[in-house]
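Review form for a predicted model. The reviewer records the input and the model, then writes brief findings.
Reviewer: anonymous (R2)
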Amino acid sequence: MNARLIVLLLVAGLLAGQPAPQRKRDLQVEKDTAAQAALPPGMAVPRSYAVVIGISDYRNMPDRSLRYAERDAESIYAILISPEGGNFRAENVHKVIGSQATLANLVRELDQWLPSVAQEDDRVLIYFAGHGFVFGGRAYLAPHDLLPANIPGTGYPMEALGKVVGGRIKARNKVLITDACHSGAITPDAGPQQNAALNRSLLDLDRSVFSLSASRDREASFESAEWGGGHGIFTYYVVKGLEGEADANADGIVTADEIAEYARRNVREATGGRQNPTSDRGSFDPNLPLAYIPKILASRAPTLPASEFGTLVLESNMDGVEVLVDGKPAGVVGKGAPLKLQGLRPGVHTVKGVKMGYEPDGPREEMVYPGQESTVTLKILYTRRRNKKAAELLDQGIEHYNKGFADNYRKAAAEFERALALDPGFSRAALYLGRAYNALFEFEKAEKQFRRAIEMDPDYLEARATFGGMLLDTGGFDEAIRQLNAVVQRDAGHALGHSLLAQAFRMKDLYPQSIESARQAIRLNPRNPEVHFFLADSLRLSGQHQEAQKEYLEYLRLSDYESKLAGKLNYYVVGFLVGLGKKKRASQQDIWRDLRSLAYFGLGDCHRLMSNPDPAIENYLKSLALDAEDPKAHYGLGLAYTQKAELSGALDSLPAARRHFRTMLEINQHLAEADRARKYIARIDALLGGKP
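Model under review:
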């Protein structure tokens, strides 16, 4: 038997019946303690999936642009993934926004993904904000690429949506929320005969379907800047309801019946009866839980009937003042640009106005009266004065912090602690203390300080971004997405927020979202090396190996610093080798080395998966030159040397393959790839007669 045949048999024997090699790398166990803590004892949230669609601009209808549809979708996404809201896991909510919302992508998400993942006891929600059309007596949702001359061929039929929701998705509880003109065409009071037939089929389903639409058939759905700073009126009230305002009996749970009644009554009143939300009362469990908000409302006794709501109009003497109502962000108010918050439950609400660098106004109690509009004037008057000695200690601490390395981080932490002792409201000192503890891997202490800084200044985006970066490193991916999503919603030009969101989505296997966030970050700051790395990783993990190679090389080019300089670099988030299991040493230089090691590893993987073993070996070796104890790089080298033997038909590379498989097991024998490595070693030993 010739050598090439032997090698081919070796490889075939190893690969036969084996699963594809894992492409993730040292992922940490994910935690979402915030979601668990928000629930009352004994309450269990069903596994939940959602598709959230928002389209403001249409490729072929520039004159039909909407102002707030995408913002509406972002608000729905934020409340769904909140532990005091929908309580959906972030990776289970697919957001399809703007130009991404093509007909092909809608079909993929609605017709393919949801039916493939939802099981019998699950909860599924579909939300759409955009245009809807009635053509030939049939209703359609308008994707981004709709052709007005061919609505039946390029629109998404609501009839198809009804069939997917009613027949193909297995979930016990299914929720359909549409905010579009003519969206009521799927509900019982639609006019055309075929829509009535569809509604009868929905009523006949043996599983719960809750369909809530913005308007009746042939009614328009309105949007306005007057609702929460700019929203579709219907979605504004859906979000407010899910935040807790719809909880009529104040039991901490917003049910389908409560949200339907809340939205219908408030939208009708707000539009003078021109828009009437509709819900299918015959086919869903009225007690179906849609949101969980026990911390906010569980202790609030019902006051007046849920049909009576009031309005707060917030004014301010300064621009850029963030408003918090009952401890939750409610929008931004500017001088001469009041913020109107409708649909609030009667009774006392706490209101607070915050602006970085100034003393806040509040929190203070404001009464909301049923059916009335009350004006609240926020006055941001005093510049926040810092204790002079505390400010000096902060500067001294930052000097130590910027030097890097563990000893300097400890010296910095001591200075920051002293600053906070002198000035307990010093949010910047709390932020830097959190950063110092994070660099020292004292994560519980770091989280406490990050949350402290955010509590002092809720609009402190730098603190939220830094906290989000640490959460990625510790496995708190859902909370990281919540924090970082708040950053980019407040400031769409926040390059770091988009960059870290790219990595958060990558850790959730949400590669399209990760790629989009990374590209947005690169548009804002193309010379940030790390975001090119994140983009490369998501491209590689989604199988786009050639594009990934380009981004890895761009990262390596941009991060080609001298070692001494790298040791002094002040990364925005110290130690944000997020979730990769690589952050082992409290040093910024080590972070730089580890990221470059991972980039070379990624290049090696791309070449190997494209059947180019020689460049794969070269890059894996460069990865090990930076981190000799990386088991995945040794495993990749073993695979590459084995691949080389397969392609060449020669045995020369097999001893090197065996050596790296063995080294990988010596470093970490518990990796998922360990069993495959042992099988490779056994086959190589059999082939080489036991010679190493």
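Findings: The domain at 47-297 is CATH 3.40.50.1460 (Rossmann fold).
Further findings: The chain has 26 helices and 20 strands.
Recommendation: see findings above.
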